[in-house]
Inverse folding.
Protein backbone atom coordinates (compact mmCIF):
# COMPACT_ATOMS: atom_id res chain seq x y z
CA UNK A 1 0.00 0.00 0.00
CA UNK A 2 2.64 2.47 1.07
CA UNK A 3 4.80 1.45 -1.89
CA UNK A 4 1.93 2.03 -4.29
CA UNK A 5 1.29 5.48 -2.88
CA UNK A 6 4.95 6.33 -3.20
CA UNK A 7 5.04 5.11 -6.80
CA UNK A 8 2.02 7.24 -7.58
CA UNK A 9 3.63 10.32 -6.08
CA UNK A 10 6.75 9.81 -8.13
CA UNK A 11 4.69 9.34 -11.27
CA UNK A 12 2.69 12.53 -10.66
CA UNK A 13 5.86 14.43 -9.94
CA UNK A 14 7.54 13.26 -13.12
CA UNK A 15 4.46 14.10 -15.15
CA UNK A 16 4.22 17.64 -13.84
CA UNK A 17 7.96 18.24 -14.24
CA UNK A 18 7.78 16.96 -17.78
CA UNK A 19 4.80 19.12 -18.60
CA UNK A 20 6.62 22.46 -18.62
CA UNK A 21 7.30 23.05 -22.30
CA UNK A 22 10.75 24.23 -23.27
CA UNK A 23 10.98 27.66 -24.83
CA UNK A 24 14.01 26.69 -26.87
CA UNK A 25 12.97 23.30 -28.18
CA UNK A 26 9.15 23.52 -28.21
CA UNK A 27 8.11 27.14 -28.66
CA UNK A 28 10.88 28.93 -30.55
CA UNK A 29 10.61 26.52 -33.53
CA UNK A 30 6.86 27.25 -33.84
CA UNK A 31 7.51 30.98 -33.78
CA UNK A 32 10.27 30.58 -36.35
CA UNK A 33 8.18 28.61 -38.83
CA UNK A 34 4.80 30.31 -38.36
CA UNK A 35 5.62 33.87 -37.35
CA UNK A 36 9.15 35.04 -38.10
CA UNK A 37 8.56 35.62 -41.81
CA UNK A 38 6.47 38.67 -40.90
CA UNK A 39 8.22 39.41 -37.60
CA UNK A 40 11.81 39.22 -38.70
CA UNK A 41 13.63 42.34 -37.55
CA UNK A 42 11.12 43.96 -35.24
CA UNK A 43 10.73 46.96 -37.52
CA UNK A 44 7.72 45.43 -39.30
CA UNK A 45 4.13 46.05 -38.18
CA UNK A 46 3.71 44.80 -34.63
CA UNK A 47 7.31 45.72 -33.75
CA UNK A 48 8.20 42.27 -32.54
CA UNK A 49 11.06 40.13 -33.84
CA UNK A 50 10.17 36.47 -33.31
CA UNK A 51 13.22 34.64 -34.68
CA UNK A 52 14.92 32.23 -32.25
CA UNK A 53 17.57 34.75 -31.17
CA UNK A 54 15.11 37.54 -30.44
CA UNK A 55 11.75 36.09 -29.45
CA UNK A 56 12.28 35.66 -25.71
CA UNK A 57 13.52 39.23 -25.18
CA UNK A 58 10.65 40.61 -27.21
CA UNK A 59 7.96 38.66 -25.44
CA UNK A 60 8.58 38.16 -21.75
CA UNK A 61 7.72 41.18 -19.63
CA UNK A 62 7.61 43.46 -22.68
CA UNK A 63 4.66 45.76 -23.24
CA UNK A 64 3.22 46.09 -26.72
CA UNK A 65 4.03 49.62 -27.92
CA UNK A 66 0.63 50.04 -29.56
CA UNK A 67 -1.60 48.72 -26.79
CA UNK A 68 0.44 48.84 -23.58
CA UNK A 69 -0.59 45.24 -22.88
CA UNK A 70 2.25 42.99 -21.72
CA UNK A 71 2.97 40.32 -24.32
CA UNK A 72 3.92 37.59 -21.84
CA UNK A 73 3.31 38.05 -18.13
CA UNK A 74 5.10 35.17 -16.37
CA UNK A 75 2.63 33.02 -14.46
CA UNK A 76 -0.39 34.82 -15.93
CA UNK A 77 -1.61 33.50 -19.26
CA UNK A 78 -4.80 35.56 -18.95
CA UNK A 79 -2.71 38.72 -18.75
CA UNK A 80 -0.55 37.87 -21.77
CA UNK A 81 -1.35 39.71 -24.99
CA UNK A 82 0.48 37.04 -27.03
CA UNK A 83 -2.20 34.49 -26.13
CA UNK A 84 -5.00 36.90 -26.99
CA UNK A 85 -3.42 37.34 -30.41
CA UNK A 86 -3.10 33.56 -30.83
CA UNK A 87 -6.52 32.43 -29.71
CA UNK A 88 -8.34 35.43 -31.10
CA UNK A 89 -10.25 36.04 -27.90
CA UNK A 90 -10.03 39.26 -25.98
CA UNK A 91 -8.39 41.07 -28.84
CA UNK A 92 -10.22 44.14 -27.62
CA UNK A 93 -9.03 43.40 -24.07
CA UNK A 94 -10.27 46.20 -21.88
CA UNK A 95 -10.73 48.18 -25.06
CA UNK A 96 -6.96 48.14 -25.58
CA UNK A 97 -6.16 45.15 -27.79
CA UNK A 98 -5.79 45.81 -31.49
CA UNK A 99 -5.50 44.17 -34.86
CA UNK A 100 -6.02 40.62 -35.99
CA UNK A 101 -5.65 37.07 -34.78
CA UNK A 102 -2.14 35.67 -35.40
CA UNK A 103 -0.72 34.26 -37.58
CA UNK A 104 -2.21 36.93 -39.83
CA UNK A 105 -3.87 35.55 -42.93
CA UNK A 106 -3.06 31.91 -42.12
CA UNK A 107 -4.64 29.02 -40.24
CA UNK A 108 -4.56 29.50 -36.46
CA UNK A 109 -1.90 27.56 -34.58
CA UNK A 110 -3.04 24.05 -33.64
CA UNK A 111 -4.81 23.87 -30.28
CA UNK A 112 -1.88 21.85 -28.83
CA UNK A 113 0.59 24.59 -29.72
CA UNK A 114 -1.54 27.28 -28.11
CA UNK A 115 -1.98 25.09 -25.03
CA UNK A 116 1.78 24.51 -24.89
CA UNK A 117 2.43 28.26 -24.93
CA UNK A 118 -0.24 28.79 -22.26
CA UNK A 119 1.34 26.08 -20.05
CA UNK A 120 4.77 27.62 -20.50
CA UNK A 121 3.50 31.06 -19.44
CA UNK A 122 1.62 29.54 -16.49
CA UNK A 123 4.87 27.85 -15.40
CA UNK A 124 6.54 31.26 -15.20
CA UNK A 125 7.75 31.61 -18.80
CA UNK A 126 11.22 30.23 -18.03
CA UNK A 127 14.10 30.59 -20.45
CA UNK A 128 14.41 26.82 -20.61
C1 LIG B 1 1.47 37.56 -42.67
C2 LIG B 1 2.21 38.29 -41.69
C3 LIG B 1 2.14 37.89 -40.23
C4 LIG B 1 2.31 36.63 -39.70
C5 LIG B 1 2.57 35.31 -40.41
C6 LIG B 1 2.27 36.81 -38.26
N1 LIG B 1 2.04 38.13 -37.94
FE1 LIG B 1 1.89 38.90 -36.06
N2 LIG B 1 1.49 40.75 -36.84
C7 LIG B 1 1.41 41.05 -38.18
C8 LIG B 1 0.94 42.42 -38.33
C9 LIG B 1 0.72 43.14 -39.67
C10 LIG B 1 0.75 42.94 -37.02
C11 LIG B 1 0.25 44.34 -36.61
C12 LIG B 1 -1.27 44.40 -36.64
C13 LIG B 1 -1.94 43.57 -35.57
O1 LIG B 1 -1.59 43.66 -34.39
O2 LIG B 1 -2.83 42.78 -35.91
C14 LIG B 1 1.12 41.86 -36.11
C15 LIG B 1 1.09 41.97 -34.74
C16 LIG B 1 1.45 40.96 -33.85
C17 LIG B 1 1.49 41.11 -32.41
C18 LIG B 1 1.17 42.37 -31.63
C19 LIG B 1 2.47 43.05 -31.29
C20 LIG B 1 2.24 44.19 -30.36
O3 LIG B 1 2.96 44.20 -29.36
O4 LIG B 1 1.37 45.03 -30.63
C21 LIG B 1 1.86 39.92 -31.90
C22 LIG B 1 2.04 39.57 -30.42
C23 LIG B 1 2.06 39.03 -33.01
N3 LIG B 1 1.81 39.70 -34.19
C24 LIG B 1 2.43 37.73 -32.88
C25 LIG B 1 2.49 36.83 -33.95
C26 LIG B 1 2.74 35.42 -33.78
C27 LIG B 1 2.99 34.76 -32.44
C28 LIG B 1 2.70 34.87 -35.03
C29 LIG B 1 2.84 33.42 -35.39
C30 LIG B 1 1.94 32.49 -34.73
C31 LIG B 1 2.47 35.95 -35.97
N4 LIG B 1 2.34 37.12 -35.27
C32 LIG B 1 2.41 35.79 -37.35
C33 LIG B 1 1.72 40.19 -39.22
C34 LIG B 1 1.95 38.82 -39.12
Amino acid sequence: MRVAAFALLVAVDAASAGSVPSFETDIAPVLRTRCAACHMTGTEAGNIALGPDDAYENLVGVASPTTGLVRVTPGKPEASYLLMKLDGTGLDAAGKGKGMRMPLGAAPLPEESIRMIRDWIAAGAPRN
Observations:
- The chain has a mean pLDDT of 88.
- The two ends are 37 Å apart (CA to CA).
